[in-house]
Amino acid sequence: MKSSLLLILLTLIVPGAYSQPVSDHLSGSAVTRDFFLVSRTATGSSISSGLLQDEDGTSAVSERKSVAQAALYSFLLPGMGELYVGNYGMGKYFTIAEGALWVTLYGVDRYAHWLQDDAYQYAAQHAGIQPEGKTDQYYIDIGNDSDIYAFNRRLLQSRQLYSVYSEAPNSGYYWKWDTDANRSTYRDMRVSSSQMFDNTHFVIAVIVLNHALSAINAARLAVSHNKSLATDGWIDMHARLLGSLDHPDGMMITVSKTF
């Protein structure tokens, strides 16, 4: 229910204003124009001030935001959905976190490869392996037995015939550790490398979570933004000129509130 309250009716006294009836001015091309529009929410927070309405009655105060579009922007790049909605004050933290996480991922990945390369070079030096073209399983296996013969013998005893390596010197799979201590050192190096690679998976998971949280936050902000544009509880103040510009009859100020 919309109730309009007429606050003030001002009559402008100008030369010749009463020389003809007011209705003559209104029956002609009466000029009606809003000189100012102030919209306030029920809590009294100002939404806009000093803005003219368009000819179709709409105001350029703000516009609705697509919830799906806001969520998509933030899922692609955290913080962009919040920027789209107009609340980057929260979104900037997701953007900062995104940058920090990618720097962390790069650092952890580089360190994991550095540990891995050191382990492979250590095995080449102390076990005589040829690192080129080997699988991850091969690097695990060479740390479990002192040489290729002990490894193959253990697998044959457990009837794992398809897991043995060729013992030919030119096969590229031969290894023989010079000491058990060096084999143990290599195994620790390889485990450390594997743990660092596992850490990269954790960082990637956190990056995905950051994208998801930013998308949810952007969607929430878009919904809140659209609700704030609803007219319920708004108070609009209008100033309206009566008559023509040449022969004004008065000015009417009205306040309307939607319940």
Give, in order, the helices and strands: EHEEHHHHHHEE
Number of helices: 7
Mean residue pLDDT = 77
CA-based gyration radius: 39 Å
Helix content: 40-55%
**Amino- and carboxy-terminal Cα gap:** 6 Å
How many domain regions?
2
Strand content: 15-25%
Q: In words, what does this structure look like?
A:
The longest helix has 49 residues, at 180-228. This protein has a five-stranded antiparallel beta sheet. It is of the alpha+beta class and 259 residues long. Helix content is 49%, strand content 15%. It folds into two domains: 2-63 and 229-258, no CATH class; 91-210. 16% of the residues are buried. It starts with a strand and ends with a strand. The chain has helices spanning 22-27, 67-76, 80-85, 88-127, 136-141, 148-157, 180-228; strands spanning 2-10, 34-40, 46-49, 235-243, 248-258. The protein is built from seven helices and five strands.
Summarize the structure.
The chain has about 260 residues and is of the alpha+beta class.
Keywords:
disordered N terminus, 259 residues, rod-shaped, 7 helices, alpha+beta, five-stranded antiparallel beta sheet
Layout: helices, strands, pairs:
Layout: E1 2-10, H1 22-27, E2 34-40, E3 46-49, H2 67-76, H3 80-85, H4 88-127, H5 136-141, H6 148-157, H7 180-228, E4 235-243, E5 248-258
Antiparallel strand pairs: 1-5, 2-3, 2-4, 4-5
Helix pairs in contact: 2-7, 4-7
